[in-house]
Amino acid sequence: MDHQNFVMDHHYHGEFILLGVSDRPYLEMLLFGLVLTCYIMTLLGNTTIITVSRLDPHLHTPMYFFLSNLSFLDLCYTTSLGPQMLVNFWRKNKTITYGACVGELYISLALGSTECILLAVMSYDRYAAICHPLRYTTIMSQSLCFTMAAVSWGSGFSNSVVQTVMTLSLPRCALIKLACVDTSVNEAELFAFSVVFLLLPLGLITVSYSYIGAAVLRIRSAEGKSKAFKTCSSHLMVVSLFYGSAISSYLQSPSNYSVTKAR
User: Fold this and answer.
1) Per-residue pLDDT tens for 133-165?
2) What span, in angstroms and rounded, lies between the C-alpha atoms of 201 and 168?
3) 0.85 cut: is pTM over it?
4) Cα-to-chain-centroid distance, residue 234
5) Is the pLDDT of residue 50 over 90?
6) Do 167 and 176 contact (CB within 8 A), yes or no?
7) Which residues, other chains included, contact 217 with Cβ-Cβ below 8 Å and sequence gap of 6+?
8) What are the contacts of 39-45 at 24+ separation with CB within 8 A?
9) Where in the cell is it found (predicted)?
10) Which of helix, strand or coil describes residue 150?
């Protein structure tokens, strides 16, 4: 639930009390307006990308296929968090049920894990397009694109099942930081999965872009270099923002989790 910038107080009759800025109504209204604006912009932007990609035959390419997947993922991710935040800004009784908390935990982990893999897949698509332009359509066949997308979604939701089940095995808690028992095994397991779902895809992205960079340097025309840069710049920006925040949030050693919890 830390995605919502809320702190859970205690577990009482199957509900969690959500704290945050409830003692500052003016700040709640400011945050409500900010979150609502960002949420609406996210809905409109991603819906437009998906619609245009489907309606324009010229955009029926692997790049826009994966971009549509990413847009749909972002729609699901923001919708799983945004409305709950907006409702709680207005409610006096700021609580969330145990079941809703578990559901949000599972969905957030699943979509976040899926995005890790999907961004790596998109980097491979850019590698094939720039480094092997003549064989691009052969390499990135429709069957391969569907398979790579299915693997991204399937691995993300499978990882979330493992994480959620292990977290729910803790007594009366929906999050590791709320547990009142030794959570070292859970923390070690979380760290291991974070390495697999964060560092491994990031490594693949780095390798792909090292080949892309070498290929771009061999392009003689400035126009060709500019075109290659434009096809990759937006993806690199998303990768930097996503992996930067994800690694800082999740890729901590078990000892760091313990220190944070002790504070």
Assistant:
1) 889 999 999 999 999 999 999 999 998 888 888
2) 27
3) no
4) 16
5) yes
6) yes
7) none
8) 39/78, 39/82, 39/83, 39/86, 42/74, 42/75, 42/78, 42/82, 43/75, 43/78, 43/79, 45/71
9) Cell membrane
10) helix
Burial 49-62 (b: 16+ CB within 10 A, else e): bbeebeeeeeeebb
Nearest to 238 by CA among 46, 15, 54: 46
118 is written with which tokens?
Answer: 């999907």
DSSP for residue 12: E
Q: Report the run of H or E that residue 11 belongs to, with start and end.
A: strand 7-12
d(CA 261, CA 263): 5
Residue with tokens 């409305």: 83
Place of tokens 């999050």: 175
Task: Locate 9 and state its tokens.
Answer: 């107080």
User: Which residues is 95 bridged to in the sheet?
Assistant: 17
Q: What are the backbone dihedrals phi and psi of residue 217, each rounded to the nearest 5 degrees, phi first?
A: -65, -25
Average pLDDT over every residue of 120-132: 92
Tens digits of per-residue pLDDT, 164-203? 888 777 665 545 455 555 556 666 767 777 777 788 888 8
Q: Which amino acid is at 35?
A: V
